[in-house]
Amino acid sequence: MRGYPMPKTRVVVTDAQVDAARMIVEHDKDLGRETSEAIRKIAEAAPTAVKPSARKRGG
Amino acid sequence: MTSLPDWAIWGVALGSPLLNAVVTAVGQRVSRRGDRELETRSRREEVMRTLRWAAELAVSDEVHKARLGNQELKALLRSNMLNSADRDFIFAALDASLEEPVQAIELAGDDVEVVASTTDLSDTGEVLIPSEEES
Q1: What is the pLDDT of residues A22-54, one digit of tens each?
Q2: Best of B57, B62, B88, B115 to disrupt the A interface by mutation (most A CBs within 10 Å)?
Q3: Has this prediction a pTM greater than 0.80?
Q4: Contacts of B117 in chain A (CB under 8 A)
Q5: In 3D, which of B117, B101, B104 has the Cα closest to residue A24?
Q6: Alpha helices (H) along chain B
Q7: In angstroms, rounded to a whole number, what is the distance separating the alpha carbons of residues B97 and B111?
Q8: Closest-CA residue of chain A to B111
Q9: Which of chain B's residues have a Cβ under 8 Å away from the Cβ of A31?
Q10: In this structure, is the dihedral angle defined by the CA atoms of residues A39, A41, A46 and A49, taken in order, positive or negative?
Q11: Does B50 touch chain A (CB under 8 A)?
């Protein structure tokens, strides 16, 4: 097998979802709770211009 | 002819209007408290209606609606109309709005890149979902 690197899975979220994740992270911090890894990743998502891509829900 | 003692005459003369005034004041106070309770209850109902509306917007697939829902939920959090149990409803709605990307991130494991779209695709009728295109 050739050693091609596996492409990283890319999850695109909306700014509203990033905002929601940040609110949850802040709330958890206030309560001294650990936020789930996935929600932390969404809260830290870097803004990127995404092409109107190909995929639609259910399509 | 019988005559009342002076203290009784003074007592009736002053005591009767005084008693009247006290009873009126107590009655007003009770009535005001009732009004206040009614107002608090109706404000609370209004807040709960707003909370339900904001939660529905926050989980919307349309980005504009989701943004508005988040802003409303934030405003409700800042207000002092909610108790700690009500605040849990807000975070339940926020959790629900992240269900899809959270599942996608958990499925992908460590090898995942999360990006926030700066392009508003909702105008084109497209809905952002996790994609597995190359990074």
Answers
A1: 999 999 999 999 999 999 999 998 887 766 554
A2: B115
A3: no
A4: 12-15, 47-50
A5: B101
A6: 6-58, 63-78, 84-97, 99-108
A7: 23
A8: A8
A9: none
A10: negative
A11: no
State whether A12 and B63 contact (CB < 8 Å).
no
The SS3 of residue A6 is coil
CB contact under 8 A, A48 and B117: yes
Cβ count near B47 (within 10 Å) = 15
Query: Average model confidence (pLDDT) for chain B?
Result: 85
Residues 6+ apart with CB under 8 A from B87: B77
CA nearest to A54 within chain B: B126
- What gap in Å lies between CA B68 and CA B70, rounded to an integer? 5
Q: Identify the three-state secondary structure at position A56.
A: coil
**How distant, in Å, are the alpha carbons of A4, B34, B100 from that of B135?**
14, 63, 19
